[in-house]
């Protein structure tokens, strides 16, 4: 069936601007603003009470534990606010760094709470959010109510002559019964038109108001940028350690199953040749000749293994010749272009090489391509590695081609992997690394 004429869901045929006033997102965001006033009032009162009571008791020893307890309570209230933001605004905010006492016992905990920046940010949120909550509550409720009231004006205009003894909404009056009223069909239609415009604009007004709340929740109730960076570095360090351990296991396995096994077999063959040397020189010579062949194979395996650890050509001549040699071993013809005015840091150079190596291996094994290109260049303080092919496409970080692990390894050094591989091809994969020259 032609998808151009396939039945489409009703919601997708209605413009976004017309759907927005009735969407669940708009009403959830309006509910968030509506609930902000009572919640912010409670949090503001709590913050003022904590500050006042703690500051008032600072002349005694009780002020410090009272203030610490108040800050801990503020963190709990902040957790409720993060939950509310996640439920109504769809905003996922991680919990801030926990309180880590440097000393055991109550005093250690009190000192940790008082030194925690996250605790004071929660208290600051309670103070700053209150005036904004008052404004956003009043503005959104007034705007939204007036918009729907004007749009539905024909439905409730009858209340004016029946209960207020006037023909409609009074725009102007002198107090003696003289004035301007919205009661003619044209005026009623104009009022509905204004109401319609306000209703259509309402979701975007509400979204703009909640955007300020999003910024406050993210900035004051979430983890600090420093703590986030530390957590990211710890995660990246774990990835690097895991990658290094996997590489060591691979090298050990290759040595055990390859060169080591051949050398053991070679030693046994030479031992047998030594025993046969006196009684059967021709057989011994044949065995020595076979051992010589095994030595060559073992040396080649050791060279391949050393190249996999760090190729000598990369150390001696740089990224351009190393990538050209790498492309020559690829099963698909590869055009290599390297445009670098100087060499980056050795670690980054090695990562760029092995990134290109893994991407070309994917081209050989999975792409079913007839040709590929490998481009390396520098832009600002980043080094870019781009591999393209005309294969079948469909590559991704979740398709089992090793791209997920490669993306993690690049992320560990502040790098980035961008995959553009629609089904049917072509495929374009860009690796971005810091220069660090």
Could you please describe the fold and organization of this structure?
Residues 1-11 have low confidence and may be disordered. Helix content is 66%, strand content 10%. A hairpin with a 2-residue loop joins strand 4 (372-379) and strand 5. It is α+β, with helices and mostly antiparallel strands and 437 residues long. It is built from 15 helices and seven strands. It is elongated. It folds into three domains: 21-221, no CATH class; 234-309, Up-down Bundle (Single alpha-helices involved in coiled-coils or other helix-helix interfaces), CATH 1.20.5; 317-434, Heat Shock Protein 90, CATH 3.30.565.10. The strands form two sheets. Strands 3-4-5-7-6 form a five-stranded mixed beta sheet. Strands 1-2 form a two-stranded antiparallel sheet. It has helices at 10-13, 16-19, 24-56, 63-88, 106-115, 117-151, 153-156, 159-164, 185-221, 225-276, 281-309, 312-317, 319-328, 346-367, 403-411; strands spanning 169-173, 179-182, 334-339, 372-379, 382-389, 416-420, 427-434.
The coarse overall form would be elongated
Q: Specify Rg, calculated over alpha carbons.
A: 36 Å
The percentage of residues in β strands lies in 5-15%
Sheet having the most strands: 5 strands, mixed
* Tally of structural domains: 3
Quick one: how many beta strands? 7
Task: Summarize the entry for a quick read.
The chain contains 15 helices and 7 strands.
């Amino acid at each position: 069936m032609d998808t151009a004429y396939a039945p489409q869901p009703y919601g997708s045929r209605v413009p976004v601007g017309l759907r927005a006033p009735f969407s669940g997102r708009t009403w959830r965001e309006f509910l968030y603003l509506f609930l902000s006033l009572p919640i912010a009032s409670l949090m503001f009162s709590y913050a003022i009470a904590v500050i006042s009571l703690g500051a008032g008791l600072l002349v005694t020893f009780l002020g410090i534990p009272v203030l610490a307890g108040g800050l801990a309570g503020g963190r709990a209230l902040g957790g409720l606010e993060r939950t509310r933001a996640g439920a109504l605004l769809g905003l996922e905010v991680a919990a801030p760094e926990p309180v880590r006492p440097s000393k055991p016992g109550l005093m250690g905990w009190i000192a940790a709470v008082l030194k925690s920046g996250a605790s004071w940010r929660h208290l600051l949120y309670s103070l700053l959010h209150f005036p904004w909550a008052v404004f956003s509550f009043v503005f959104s409720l007034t705007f939204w109510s007036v918009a729907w009231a004007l749009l539905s004006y024909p439905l409730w205009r009858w209340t004016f002559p029946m209960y207020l003894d006037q023909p409609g909404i009074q725009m102007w009056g002198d107090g003696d019964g003289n004035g301007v009223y919205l009661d003619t069909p044209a005026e009623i239609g104009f009022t509905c038109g204004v109401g319609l415009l306000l209703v259509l604009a309402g979701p975007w007004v509400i979204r703009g108001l909640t955007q300020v709340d999003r910024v406050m929740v993210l900035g004051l109730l979430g983890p600090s940028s420093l703590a986030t960076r530390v957590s990211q570095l710890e995660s990246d360090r774990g990835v690097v350690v895991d990658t290094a351990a996997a590489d060591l296991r691979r090298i050990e396995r290759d040595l055990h199953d390859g060169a080591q096994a051949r050398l053991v077999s070679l030693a046994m063959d030479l031992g047998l040749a030594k025993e046969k040397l006196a009684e059967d020189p021709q057989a011994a010579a044949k065995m020595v000749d076979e051992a010589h062949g095994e030595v060559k194979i073992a040396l080649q395996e050791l060279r391949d293994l050393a190249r996999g650890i760090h190729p000598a050509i990369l150390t001696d001549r740089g990224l351009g010749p190393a990538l050209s040699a790498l492309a020559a071993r690829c099963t698909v013809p590869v055009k290599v272009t390297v445009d670098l005015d100087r060499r980056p840091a050795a670690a980054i150079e090695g990562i760029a090489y092995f990134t290109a190596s893994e991407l070309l291996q994917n081209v050989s094994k999975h792409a079913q391509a007839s040709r590929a290109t490998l481009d390396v260049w520098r832009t600002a303080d980043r080094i870019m590695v781009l591999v393209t092919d005309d294969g079948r496409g469909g590559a991704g970080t979740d398709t089992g081609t090793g791209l997920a692990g490669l993306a993690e390894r690049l992320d560990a050094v502040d790098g980035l992997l961008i995959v553009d591989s629609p089904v049917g091809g072509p495929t374009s994969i860009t690796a971005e690394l810091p220069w660090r020259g």
